[in-house]
Design brief:
The protein has helices at 12-29, 34-54, 68-85, 90-98, 110-118, 122-137, 146-164. It is mainly alpha-helical and 170 residues long. It is extended.
Amino acid sequence: MLDPEGKPERTGEDVREELFDSLDVIQEQGQGNPVLNDFASHIAKTTRNYAPGLFHTYDIEDVPRTNNDRESEFRGIIRQVLRTTGQKGATRRIILRSGAWEVVPHPETLEQTVEALSSVDPDELQQERTRVCNHRKRFRTHTRSVKQSQKQLKQLKKQWGQLTNGEGAV
Protein backbone atom coordinates (compact mmCIF):
# COMPACT_ATOMS: atom_id res chain seq x y z
CA MET A 1 0.00 0.00 0.00
CA LEU A 2 2.77 2.43 0.87
CA ASP A 3 5.08 1.27 -1.91
CA PRO A 4 4.92 3.66 -4.88
CA GLU A 5 6.10 1.01 -7.37
CA GLY A 6 3.45 0.18 -9.98
CA LYS A 7 0.98 2.72 -8.63
CA PRO A 8 -0.07 6.05 -10.07
CA GLU A 9 1.71 9.06 -8.62
CA ARG A 10 0.14 10.00 -5.30
CA THR A 11 0.61 12.85 -2.87
CA GLY A 12 1.47 12.27 0.76
CA GLU A 13 -2.10 13.14 1.69
CA ASP A 14 -3.49 10.58 -0.79
CA VAL A 15 -1.33 7.83 0.71
CA ARG A 16 -2.24 8.92 4.24
CA GLU A 17 -5.97 8.75 3.50
CA GLU A 18 -5.60 5.34 1.82
CA LEU A 19 -3.67 3.95 4.78
CA PHE A 20 -6.09 5.27 7.40
CA ASP A 21 -9.08 4.00 5.39
CA SER A 22 -7.52 0.54 5.42
CA LEU A 23 -6.84 0.78 9.15
CA ASP A 24 -10.51 1.71 9.70
CA VAL A 25 -11.54 -1.42 7.78
CA ILE A 26 -9.20 -3.57 9.88
CA GLN A 27 -10.64 -2.12 13.08
CA GLU A 28 -14.21 -2.77 11.89
CA GLN A 29 -13.30 -6.36 11.05
CA GLY A 30 -11.80 -6.79 14.50
CA GLN A 31 -15.03 -5.96 16.32
CA GLY A 32 -16.15 -8.92 18.40
CA ASN A 33 -12.70 -10.48 18.55
CA PRO A 34 -10.74 -9.05 21.50
CA VAL A 35 -7.32 -10.16 20.23
CA LEU A 36 -7.85 -8.80 16.72
CA ASN A 37 -9.47 -5.64 18.12
CA ASP A 38 -6.48 -4.98 20.41
CA PHE A 39 -4.08 -5.68 17.56
CA ALA A 40 -5.92 -3.33 15.17
CA SER A 41 -6.10 -0.60 17.84
CA HIS A 42 -2.38 -0.92 18.51
CA ILE A 43 -1.50 -0.65 14.81
CA ALA A 44 -3.82 2.35 14.36
CA LYS A 45 -2.38 4.12 17.41
CA THR A 46 1.23 3.49 16.36
CA THR A 47 0.50 4.67 12.83
CA ARG A 48 -1.14 7.85 14.13
CA ASN A 49 1.92 8.51 16.29
CA TYR A 50 4.28 8.16 13.33
CA ALA A 51 1.97 9.78 10.74
CA PRO A 52 3.48 13.31 10.91
CA GLY A 53 6.77 12.00 9.53
CA LEU A 54 5.54 9.22 7.26
CA PHE A 55 4.02 10.80 4.21
CA HIS A 56 6.07 13.87 3.26
CA THR A 57 8.44 11.75 1.14
CA TYR A 58 5.65 11.19 -1.41
CA ASP A 59 5.64 14.91 -2.13
CA ILE A 60 9.40 15.13 -2.78
CA GLU A 61 10.78 13.57 -5.93
CA ASP A 62 13.68 11.07 -5.66
CA VAL A 63 13.45 10.73 -1.87
CA PRO A 64 13.21 7.12 -0.66
CA ARG A 65 9.85 6.32 0.90
CA THR A 66 11.42 4.43 3.82
CA ASN A 67 14.74 4.36 5.64
CA ASN A 68 14.88 0.54 5.50
CA ASP A 69 18.08 0.58 3.42
CA ARG A 70 19.76 2.90 5.93
CA GLU A 71 18.59 0.76 8.85
CA SER A 72 20.01 -2.30 7.09
CA GLU A 73 23.38 -0.55 6.79
CA PHE A 74 23.38 0.22 10.51
CA ARG A 75 22.50 -3.40 11.36
CA GLY A 76 25.46 -4.47 9.22
CA ILE A 77 27.73 -2.05 11.08
CA ILE A 78 26.53 -3.38 14.42
CA ARG A 79 27.22 -6.95 13.25
CA GLN A 80 30.70 -5.95 12.07
CA VAL A 81 31.55 -4.15 15.32
CA LEU A 82 30.29 -7.16 17.26
CA ARG A 83 32.52 -9.45 15.19
CA THR A 84 35.56 -7.24 15.68
CA THR A 85 35.06 -6.47 19.39
CA GLY A 86 33.29 -9.61 20.56
CA GLN A 87 31.25 -7.49 22.97
CA LYS A 88 27.54 -7.44 22.36
CA GLY A 89 26.82 -4.75 24.96
CA ALA A 90 29.70 -2.60 23.80
CA THR A 91 28.48 -2.37 20.22
CA ARG A 92 26.02 0.46 20.66
CA ARG A 93 28.30 2.26 23.11
CA ILE A 94 31.17 2.15 20.61
CA ILE A 95 28.98 3.54 17.85
CA LEU A 96 27.44 6.23 20.06
CA ARG A 97 30.66 7.31 21.74
CA SER A 98 33.09 7.11 18.86
CA GLY A 99 30.76 7.83 16.00
CA ALA A 100 29.58 5.53 13.29
CA TRP A 101 32.88 5.82 11.46
CA GLU A 102 32.09 2.90 9.19
CA VAL A 103 29.15 4.74 7.64
CA VAL A 104 31.40 7.47 6.29
CA PRO A 105 32.68 6.75 2.79
CA HIS A 106 36.38 6.10 2.89
CA PRO A 107 39.20 5.88 0.32
CA GLU A 108 39.75 2.52 -1.35
CA THR A 109 43.57 2.52 -1.37
CA LEU A 110 46.45 3.63 0.84
CA GLU A 111 47.46 6.27 -1.72
CA GLN A 112 43.94 7.73 -1.73
CA THR A 113 43.93 7.71 2.07
CA VAL A 114 47.26 9.56 2.23
CA GLU A 115 46.02 12.09 -0.32
CA ALA A 116 42.77 12.65 1.58
CA LEU A 117 44.51 13.05 4.93
CA SER A 118 47.10 15.40 3.43
CA SER A 119 44.34 17.76 2.34
CA VAL A 120 42.92 18.14 5.87
CA ASP A 121 43.37 21.60 7.38
CA PRO A 122 45.39 21.22 10.63
CA ASP A 123 43.22 23.78 12.45
CA GLU A 124 40.03 21.95 11.48
CA LEU A 125 41.62 18.67 12.59
CA GLN A 126 42.46 20.16 15.98
CA GLN A 127 38.92 21.52 16.35
CA GLU A 128 37.50 18.08 15.55
CA ARG A 129 39.87 16.37 17.99
CA THR A 130 38.77 18.80 20.70
CA ARG A 131 35.10 18.18 19.87
CA VAL A 132 35.55 14.40 20.02
CA CYS A 133 37.50 14.65 23.27
CA ASN A 134 34.76 16.76 24.86
CA HIS A 135 32.12 14.36 23.56
CA ARG A 136 33.92 11.36 25.08
CA LYS A 137 34.35 13.13 28.44
CA ARG A 138 30.58 13.06 28.87
CA PHE A 139 30.72 9.26 28.99
CA ARG A 140 33.66 8.85 31.33
CA THR A 141 31.50 8.08 34.35
CA HIS A 142 29.08 5.81 32.48
CA THR A 143 29.59 2.24 33.61
CA ARG A 144 27.71 -0.93 34.40
CA SER A 145 30.49 -2.44 36.48
CA VAL A 146 29.89 -2.50 40.25
CA LYS A 147 33.64 -2.45 40.85
CA GLN A 148 34.13 0.54 38.55
CA SER A 149 31.14 2.35 40.06
CA GLN A 150 32.52 1.89 43.57
CA LYS A 151 35.93 3.19 42.41
CA GLN A 152 34.28 6.25 40.87
CA LEU A 153 32.24 6.89 44.02
CA LYS A 154 35.40 6.67 46.14
CA GLN A 155 37.10 9.23 43.86
CA LEU A 156 34.08 11.55 44.04
CA LYS A 157 34.05 11.34 47.85
CA LYS A 158 37.74 12.19 47.91
CA GLN A 159 37.17 15.17 45.58
CA TRP A 160 34.24 16.32 47.72
CA GLY A 161 36.39 16.08 50.83
CA GLN A 162 39.02 18.28 49.19
CA LEU A 163 36.36 20.83 48.25
CA THR A 164 34.96 20.99 51.75
CA ASN A 165 38.34 20.89 53.50
CA GLY A 166 37.03 17.94 55.50
CA GLU A 167 34.52 20.16 57.34
CA GLY A 168 31.41 19.05 55.45
CA ALA A 169 30.70 22.52 54.04
CA VAL A 170 32.03 24.37 51.03
